[in-house]
Write a structure and sequence with these properties.
With 146 residues, the protein is α+β, with helices and mostly antiparallel strands. Helix content is 41%, strand content 23%.
């Protein structure tokens, strides 16, 4: 697959990202246009909903419980494709800059672009991603070099 095909596949699987629940096309492109041999490290900030938002499905699943359902699939899948977590911890406070409120911070690292893409192209991961979307009121994911 070429970069455009991969980006189209990812956008088709995860949506346009216009609601902040997944990468937008330009954000997928920022990964796809990197040197494929460089490590990919992501700093994730998550703010959970009080009650997970599963669209038309009504329920009372807390956001953090929905996120645990996502993590039960994403963590072993990430490790299987060659990624690893450098840190997963509750957010405590801002030290410099604007005060922000988050529930969880996770720093994950992949040895290269292929490992990162293997995660997002994995069928089980794609199936579990709905729990991440339902769990999060908002999220921020930063790409860093290293």
């Amino acid at each position: 697959m070429n970069k455009d095909d991969i980006q189209n596949d990812l956008t088709s699987a995860y949506g346009s990202g216009s609601d902040g629940s997944a990468p937008r096309g330009d954000q997928w492109a920022s990964i796809l246009n990197r040197d494929p041999n460089r490590p990919v490290t992501l700093i994730n900030f998550f703010k959970f909903r009080e009650i997970a938002g599963y669209g038309d499905k009504t329920g009372s699943t807390p956001g953090n419980v929905a996120f645990d359902q996502y993590a039960a699939v994403s963590i072993p899948t990430m490790e299987r494709v060659g990624g690893k977590f450098l840190l997963v911890a509750p957010f405590e406070a801002s030290l410099i800059g604007e005060n922000e409120e988050w529930d969880l911070v996770a720093i994950g690292s992949y040895p290269n672009q292929k490992a990162f893409l293997d995660l997002y192209q994995d069928a089980a991961y794609r199936g579990a991603f709905e729990h991440r979307t339902a769990a999060c009121a908002r999220q921020k994911v930063l790409i860093v070099d290293g």
